[in-house]
UniProtKB/TrEMBL annotation:
Residue ranges of every copy of the Alanine racemase C-terminal domain listed in the record: 250-363
Keywords: Isomerase, Pyridoxal phosphate
InterPro entries: Ala_racemase (IPR000821), Ala_racemase/Decarboxylase_C (IPR009006), Ala_racemase_C (IPR011079), Ala_racemase_N (IPR001608), Ala_racemase_pyridoxalP-BS (IPR020622), PLP-binding_barrel (IPR029066)
Domain of life the protein comes from: Bacteria
Cofactor(s) needed: pyridoxal 5'-phosphate
PROSITE patterns named among the record's database cross-references: ALANINE_RACEMASE
Annotated organism of origin: Gryllotalpicola kribbensis
Protein name, as recorded: Alanine racemase
Length: 365
């Protein structure tokens, strides 16, 4: 079998190890694996399946199409699948049938949910959808403001009395930018939970933290921590390597040397079979490198279908040599976190933007 020109190798064994490590770290809080944006380019269905095999019982989907796709792919309703971002006028009928947990931020969304519940309520097998009522604690992304919160909770409690919903969870999203701001957000959230419970909501589960705060701070873990980045082995705070926080990068981007051109004076450049059409950011030129046979060669140009590296003096490259753009570091390559740092973005962004045309090859756990 010939190696593809470019491929993203997804190590499900590394994913399993990361998940196991993160679950132990956040316990007794539960770990939710967030697979939005196609699991940041790693592939939502294979990642979700591995997560479930690794013991995960909560998956964050962001949108309803992803949530329904996960259900259709065989993620059963012993696993919570949460969605929370909808266009106005969303029809929740399918979501309720598929037992998707629903993040709800406003009275308008709650009404859309209860309208669908009312239509389904008489039908056989109807189970009231579990709501995750979202409070805004300063990020202003979505979520009810503190002023709107009591009205949202009161309406949800009334719908629960009518058998239309369950007031299962309360949640928010914290900025993870400064410790003080996160501490204030935590306090605003706990105040909001107290208000909700006084108003009659059950709130069995409280969650607010993602990768960064969830790994660093015990006090923000509460009942559940939602993580994307750390599951794929991409540190989401500064100054640490993946291994220093017990993580293994899951994606390795591989290509091959297409041609070598001698430039005289013992200088040479080589063409490598991945370009910006594959999602390689153009500004890795001058900042990042590609490893070939254990040696890092600086990237000098990124074109659409290939990139160019300056061959390190004293090394010989040949057509067909395997080239590793980023990965775990085991073959001398940089990690995607290093690529992000050096090129002024996030490792998360780089894996997420690896193009759909790049085949994903899964290494089973
Ligand atoms: C993306 C997202 C997460 C996961 O964020 P990471 O920093 O990748 O762990 C958690 N919660 C919500 C609401 C998100 O949108």
């Amino acid at each position: 079998m010939t190696a593809p020109l470019v491929e993203a190798v997804i190590d499900l064994g590394a994913l399993d190890k990361n998940i196991t490590h993160l679950r132990r770290t956040v316990a007794p809080a539960e770990l939710m694996v967030v697979v939005k944006a196609d699991a940041y380019g790693h592939g939502r269905v294979p990642v979700a399946r591995q997560a479930v095999a690794s013991g995960i019982r909560s998956i964050g989907a962001l949108d309803l199409d992803t949530a329904l796709e996960l259900r259709a792919s065989g993620i059963g309703d012993d696993v919570t699948v949460l969605s929370w971002l909808y266009p106005p006028g969303q029809d929740f009928t399918e979501a309720i049938r598929a037992r998707v947990d629903l993040g709800v931020s406003s009275l308008a969304e709650l009404t859309e949910v209860t309208d669908a519940s009312r239509r389904l309520a008489g039908a056989e097998g109807f189970v009231p959808p579990r709501l995750h009522l979202k409070l805004d604690t300063g990020l202003h992304r979505n979520g009810a403001t503190a002023a709107d919160w009591p009205a949202l909770v009161t309406a949800a409690v009334a719908a629960e009395r009518d058998g239309l919903v369950r007031t299962f969870a309360a949640w928010t999203h914290i900025a993870e930018a400064s410790e003080d701001e996160d501490t204030r957000a935590l306090q605003r959230f706990l105040d909001g939970v107290a208000v909700a419970r006084e108003l009659g909501a059950s709130i069995d589960v409280r969650h607010l933290a993602a990768s960064s705060a969830g790994l660093r701070r015990e006090d923000v873990r509460l009942d559940l921590v939602r993580m994307g980045g750390h599951c794929w082995g991409i540190p989401s705070f500064d100054g640490v390597t993946p291994s220093e926080i017990g993580l293994i990068p899951v994606m390795t981007l591989r290509a091959q040397v297409l041609a070598v051109r001698e430039l005289g004076d013992e200088h040479a450049e080589a063409f490598v079979s991945a370009g910006y059409g594959d999602g390689v950011p153009r500004n890795v030129a001058g900042t990042c490198s590609v490893a070939v046979r254990g040696v890092q060669h600086p990237i000098t140009r990124v074109e659409r279908d290939h990139l160019v590296i300056a061959v390190m003096p004293g090394t010989e490259l040949a057509q067909g040599d395997p080239a590793v753009l980023f990965g775990t570091g085991a073959e001398g390559e940089q990690t995607v976190r290093q690529w992000g740092d050096r090129s002024g973005t996030l490792g998360d962004e780089i894996t997420t933007r690896i193009a759909a045309r790049v085949p994903r090859r899964y290494l089973e756990a």
